[in-house]
Amino acid sequence: MPSKNDEKRKGNKIKLKRLGLRAKTTKSGKTEKIDNNNKKNTKRKKIGWRVFKILLFTMLGLGVIGTGVVIGVLTGIIDKTENVDLAQLQSQKLTSFIYDTEEKEIAALFSEENRINISYEKTPKYLIDAVVSIEDERFWKHNGVDIKRTGAAIVTYIFNGGNSSFGGSTITQQLIKNSTGDKEADWTRKIREWYRAISLEKKLEKEDILESYLNTIYLGAGASGIEVASHTYFNKSVTEVNLAEAATLAAVIQLPETYNPYRGEEAAKKLKKRKEIVLAKMLELKKINKEEYEEALKYEIKYEKGKIATGTTYTYFVDAVIESVAADLMEKQNVSKEMALQMLYGNGYKIYTTQVPSVQKSIDEAFSNKSWFYNDKAGTFMQAGMVIIDNSNGNVVGLSGGAGEKETDRSFNRATQAIRQPGSTFKPISAYGPAFERGISYPGMGIDDSQLTVGKWTPRNYYGYFNGYVSARSAINLSMNIPAVRTLQSVGVDYGYEFAKKLGISTLNKNDKTLSLALGGLNRGVTVLDMTGAYSVFANNGIYLEPRLYTKVVDPNGKEILSNKESAQRVMKDTAAYLITDCLKTVVTTGTATSTRLGGGMETAGKTGNTNDDKDQWFAGYSPYYTAVVWNGYDQPKSINRPYPYTSMRVWTDVMKKVHSSLAAKGFTRPSGIVSATVCTHSGKIPTEACKLYGGVIKTEIFGSGTVPTDTCDVHKMATICKVTGKIANEHCLETEEKAYITRDTQPKIKPRDWNRMIITDKCTLHSKSSAEEDNGNVNPYN
Ligand SMILES: [Zn+2]
Ligand SMILES: [Zn+2]
């Protein structure tokens, strides 16, 4: 059984180890508490005296007079010197890593001060020897300050009249200089540095000092820390470097940018020379033998920038993860965006994302297809954005924010940041969805595709005419505009607006409370990500799973900083959602999106979307497994005028076919509340004899239970027609027939296509009482 003291010591050690530091164990076995706020005066005096002694002897040796003055000044400086803060040594940044669902690293996040720590134990012996040999050969013996070198430095300083760089720093001093940010350039800083170096040596083992030093030191070419430097120069971990490479790394320390071999041949030559000096010094100090020395000299160094060092551009997915985690850190830790990003780039987090590598690969392949993405005649590159969500959990399994070369990190993301007009893809979200939800409309509902003017607004159809009476299903199928507007009118703009917001459309504002909401004619627009989330509600029978890009963020101690749990919320009835899905299935089987069928028995539902002048092209679709939305267009909106089917449909189909290739065929789940009934699809009501006679309008359709109509059709009317004149018959007409017509309350200027079947109001005037008597029934209508 370990004693209580042992346990406590262990606890302390673990704590310190987390900080990357070992506590110095005193002879009594107690772990010395490292607490900078509890400085003991006695100790301070003792250390002060040591520095002082060094100086005193130096001064005396130099024959400087007036030591009394010096002592006074020194005491003053030391009294004002904060002891070195160990926490400051730890302010070194730690790289964060981002993982996909297979826990494979997909990105490393680091700031310019990026460092990846490597423990002393893992650092190759010859690297340590190389660094100590060249930088501080008496490191293992001195107490923080090398008296021999310091004395020499002071002499130089004095003889140069204070114009010397005051070199002669030990590794301990260099570590302190790099960590404290004490930038005062005068000689008092040097004294504070000595004092701090000696203090630090009393608290930490030499190995810890060296470890911190190697992990914080700047080594040129943007690399801080020996591990990052090793990746920067040799594209491998420092644990894998050979003696020649180790000596090269040690050589860089003196003048990191002068020796940076990527600066050119001259710098590389200088570095080679310095490396030879390092090796010679190692030989002199018997750290290596003649053979090793010769071999290392002969070895030809090859410089190669590794992945971690070249600052490879993050993918759009990683960019989106950074934004999402930063936003959650801001909210949950109540910090500014700058702070959140600093935490992300420097706290050594492990971020577990929702990216499924195979899905992402399919997206990336499509987005690099040069026959879909190229410069047009005007030299403009057409862009696109895509998001795929796993319906079962709301995970964003793949995402792309743009085609072509991605040049910078956190660049404009067309999947999450571009706000574009959604066009007709918005109809199920803002018009049919809310109307189906309230039972005001359903697939068999009849709507008049005829001229409509609201105030100064007269919406048109892309096909340039009006169909007349159609069902909601047909209107969705062929993306008719007027029926969508009438549908939103029937459910109310406010309801439609709130409904779209419930489905996760976050970019709406109050100015969108107009009827053009039905057509996706928005003030600002929508993001691909929001659209994917909204469509997944239909796929999920009315449940909104907030799209998530990551599941958790863990700090270096294994503590969960953020937990991004699934959040499911019912935002519409399962039946209403299913009715939408059923209509969107028709779009894929017979409507505007037949090219997107996934085939192989995999049910597919989707909706196309185009905006005025073809500036934005969309396809939003889903299977029982995944929901995906693709947008394509130019960054500076201009007409696309591309042949049908357009890029977003091609990309959607290509990617989704690959994503589903290994999945079992599946249909959408039909909720128990779905019922069937026969309906007149011009009125959406119970069919009458008139509907039957009219022909082609009676259909068995599906409804949410409780929404099956109870009124009878009021669109279709019967009339008795004089067979001779084709007008409404009177009692004198001899040959008559019953015919069915449509009726409407309005008299549109532009006649819809079914106008020829409008009810007739003109009465037969040919036949009358007198005519019947005169002609005795032998009427010639042409006379
Ligand atoms: Zn009818
Ligand atoms: Zn007649």
Explain the layout of strands and helices.
Blueprint: H1 4-18, H2 41-62, H3 67-80, H4 86-89, E1 96-99, E2 105-109, H5 125-135, H6 147-159, H7 171-180, H8 187-203, H9 206-216, H10 226-234, H11 243-252, H12 265-284, H13 290-298, H14 307-310, H15 316-333, H16 337-346, E3 350-353, H17 357-367, E4 383-390, E5 395-400, H18 427-437, E6 446-449, E7 468-471, H19 472-477, H20 481-491, H21 493-502, H22 528-539, E8 543-545, E9 550-554, E10 560-563, E11 568-570, H23 574-589, E12 605-610, E13 616-622, E14 626-633, H24 647-660, E15 674-680, H25 689-694, E16 698-704, E17 716-722, E18 736-742, H26 769-775
Parallel strand pairs: 1-3
Antiparallel strand pairs: 1-2, 3-9, 4-5, 4-14, 6-7, 8-11, 9-10, 12-13, 13-14, 15-16, 17-18
Report what the structure shows.
There is one protein chain. This protein is of the alpha+beta class. It has a 5-stranded mixed beta sheet with strand order 2-1-3-9-10. It starts with a helix and ends in an 8-residue tail after the last helix. Residues 1-43 and 777-783 have low confidence and may be disordered. The protein binds zinc ion (2 copies). One zinc ion (ZN) binds at residues 680, 682-683, 687, 691, 697, 713, 715-716.
Keywords:
13% strand; elongated; five-stranded antiparallel β-sheet; 783 residues; disordered N terminus; binds zinc ion
Radius of gyration: 40 Å
What is the approximate shape?
A: elongated
Q: Tally the beta strands.
A: 18
The description of the largest β-sheet is: 5 strands, mixed
Number of helix segments?
Answer: 26
Beta-strand percent range: 5-15%
Strand order of the largest sheet: 2-1-3-9-10
Q: Specify the helix fraction band.
A: 25-40%
* Helix/sheet category: alpha+beta
What would the average pLDDT be, to the nearest integer? 85
The distinct bound ligands, ions and cofactors come out as: zinc ion
Any low-confidence stretches, pLDDT <50, length ≥5? 1-43, 777-783
| Quaternary structure of the protein | single chain
